Amino acid sequence: MILVTGGAGFIGSSVIRHLLSDTTFSVVNLDKLTYAGNLESIPDSIKSNRYFFEQVDICDIAELDRVFSTYRPDIVMHLAAESHVDRSIDGPGDFIQTNILGTYTLLEGARKYWLSLEGEKKSNFRFHHISTDEVYGDLPHPDEVTGELPLFTEKTSYAPSSPYSASKASSDHLVRAWLRTYGLPTVVTNCSNNYGPYHFPEKLIPHMILNALAGKALPVYGDGSQIRDWLYVEDHARALVKVATKGHIGETYNIGGHNEKRNIDVVKTLCELLEELVPNKPEGIGSYSDLITYVKDRPGHDVRYAIDARKIADELGWTPEETFESGMRKTVQWYLDNKEWWQRVLSGDYKLGRIGEHG
Ligand code: NAD
User: Fold this and answer.
1) How many CB atoms sit inside 10 A of residue 143's CB?
2) Count of structural domains within the chain
């Protein structure tokens, strides 16, 4: 049994879809269902008798105790978080609450449960904390002294820039402290930017696709030169399950797609794909790229993130299956084929959705 926190979110739902379709694990999805949680992102769960759902806040220790003793998980995969940088700038409180206090509370719940276990059930237990490359801060592009293009490795010092990345950095430190101090068997992953199906429309790629389809402006921060290392979400989900089941306790694994792209080039790629796939544009639009507009940059905006993912490749044999081109094509096609999903999200009529079907 795997306990996935945040399983109704973008990456958590991809992990659960992968666990249900490609493994024999049972899954309990523990999610508070904030604005970002959407059970309609796990359509397979309806027909699976290996899937359970608990609407629980990771800050609620009594509820966590109940879930641990009811389901007796072998692995915890902790994804629940407040995850949107812009929201963390507008209101950091929820980020401190969920990402720091929530992770602390979950660690305590897991530790209490783990201490109650015996034999192999205890020695095989593991707590996998899912984090971001944003904890490392900014990378020079290129390095002013050496002229090289450095990458984040597992040894890069933490230097978070935003309330979001600072709260994730704090949670990473807590997880390592619970390993060092209490011996809780933990493993940590730090991943670059994800994209793909079921991505909440406020994030860059779906936001641009949906705005373009509606003939609305495509707002790019600053001059669009910020570089992100993009990873297709299903590749991330496969990496996470590999680390959760085969990663070495106490280790950190960086996960990335080897796809460094400037934000403006991501938007231009989307426009080109839409020209090809949806040539009938909204009235008055000559080409989708005419919709690109440059807006005031986000405060504290990091210039470049890029991941060195050699360790997970060498030790666990994981590499991404999708290139940026193939993943972007799949993503645009998914949004074209799944209008109902995103229209319900945009209308606010989602989350529990057809909850009756989930039991
Ligand atoms: P998301 O915002 O799409 O989903 C977060 C989920 O957590 C939602 O289902 C939400 O309801 C749930 N949640 C929030 N607060 C909760 C609480 N207090 N108790 C229980 N559930 C709660 O996020 P995502 O993009 O799927 O990211 C998942 C994890 O991966 C996060 O920890 C994030 O920091 C990390 N990460 C994300 C990216 C990315 O590109 N999206 C990249 C690297 C790492």
Assistant:
1) 11
2) 1
Residues marked active site are found at 133-134, 164
DSSP codes, 100-158? IIIHHHHHHHHHHHHHT--HHHHHT-EEEEEEEGGGG----SS-TTT-----B-TTPPP
Out of 111-125, 169-183, 214-228, 329-343, least confident range:
214-228
Q: Which residues contact 22 (CB under 8 A, 6 or more apart)?
A: none
Average pLDDT over residues 172-178: 98
Which CATH number characterizes residue 248's domain?
3.40.50.720
CA distance linking residue 182 with residue 179, whole number of Å? 6
- pLDDT of residue 142 exceeding 80, the answer is no
Q: Report yes or no: 201 and 207 within 8 Å, Cβ to Cβ.
A: yes
**What pLDDT is stored for residue 350 in this prediction?**
66
Pick the atom of ligand 1 nearest to 13's CA. 26
Cβ of 130 closer than 6 Å to ligand 1, yes or no, is yes
273 lines ligand 1 (CB under 6 A): no
194 pocket-lining for ligand 1 (C-beta < 6 Å): yes
Domain that holds residue 166: 2-358
End-to-end alpha carbon distance in the chain: 18
Nearest to 58 by CA among 117, 119, 130, 149: 130
